Amino acid sequence: xxxxxxxxxxxxxxxxxxxxxxxxxxxxxxxxxxxxxxxxxxxxxxxxxxxxxxxxxxxxxxxxxxxxxxxxxxxxxxxxxxxxxxxxxxxxxxxxxxxxxxxxxxxxxxxxxxxxxxxxxxxxxxxxxxxxxxxxxxxxxxxxxxxxxxxxxxxxxxxxxxxxxxxxxxxxxxxxxxxxxxxxxxxxxxxxxxxxxxxxxxxxxxxxxxxxxxxxxxxxxxxxxxxxxxxxxxxxxxxxxxxxxxxxxxxxxxxxxxxxxxxxxxxxxxxxxxxxxxxxxxxxxxxxxxxxxxxxxxxxxxxxxxxxxxxxxxxxxxxxxxxxxxxxxxxxxxxxxxxxxxxxxxxxxxxxxxxxxxxxxxxxxxxxxxxxxxxxxxxxxxxxxxxxxxxxxxxxxxxxxxxxxxxxxxxxxxxxxxxxxxxxxxxxxxxxxxxxxxxxxxxxxxxxxx
Length: 450
Description:
Strand content: 25-35%
Radius of gyration: 26 Å
Number of helices: 8
GO cellular component, one term: Golgi apparatus
Shape: globular
Low-confidence stretches: 429-434, 443-450
Structural class: alpha+beta
Organism: Diaphorina citri (Asian citrus psyllid)
Number of domains: 3
Family: Belongs to the peptidase S8 family.
Distance between the termini: 47 Å
Pfam family, one: Peptidase_S8
Largest sheet: 9 strands, mixed
Protein name: Membrane-bound transcription factor site-1 protease-like
Mean pLDDT: 87
Number of strands: 23
């Protein structure tokens, strides 16, 4: 703050030294506790249990909340070795903390929601899950309508493990609406410490709560392809917007709930339901969805996926929307940089997206994207939008509709007076026209879905 000389900072580079100092201070004040009571897991348990939650911020942005040093000391000063879970409960109706889970109710036929839960074992560096975790539906609260499956780490080491909770809705609730509840029970066991006779054992419960609605109609369901996006790239992947020169690396990749959060929220606000595809195209039933949405994909497509998607579009009436971004080998060579840490030149693994792979996917529809990189302002429906580092459409069905704009070529100086940057290809299905394919050269154009 300007008047006090303080300011707000964010990120692990800021948080880590603060937390390290808190841990050192707590450890120095807890030396009187019995041996084995204060360890990495119990210290984390104390910090998380005592943290003050920040209002209006989701759990992925704040974790457990703001550190409360005095409260953490009080908890650890009377601590008994035990297991715990983080998050400690799953209330998929609680916004803003449980965002994005709280933004969309569950329904039968949807791709299962997967929530990753950390198991902390304050009883010892090594432990195990004694029996398979069990789901207990609360029958008075319609818990039987949830189908819960779990994958987990059999051995907890060091001090922790994982519990992945897969949540879906049973067929019995396909037309039902309401709130369901239940809990998952996990028992953790660790060897006794020196001087102890019996094993250490702790049972923890994970409360689960969710809203269920009747399965939405097909035209309201959008399938977002995450499988072909690199979420945590291991290499140099450039920004979608080439003007961001001070921070050229796209460290986080693309995801519907991170850098495309605004698009996700907009689609939800206007009544669409978004499911995230984490498997190849061969693993979903196109008859359940109105649209498959591809946004800045980096991975390639297998021949089986290409053939299956063609059948989905031509036979099952699946609409395809592609937000393509850019790819240009000359530009990729120009944005290489020398990394002082590794002492080597870093070259991009791909462009803003994998246009060659997209061209292979779209070839069966008579569509091909170019290798030029454009940027500029465009006007659509009386609205001015920024077209940031996108490609253009160089081949499209003659029966389709193309929209062009006066855009700047970022690879070479110059202006293209009418670069095709969006296209609609229509197909007659049954008794009505609908979109077959919509293609845009950039991931930043707002469009109206069918």
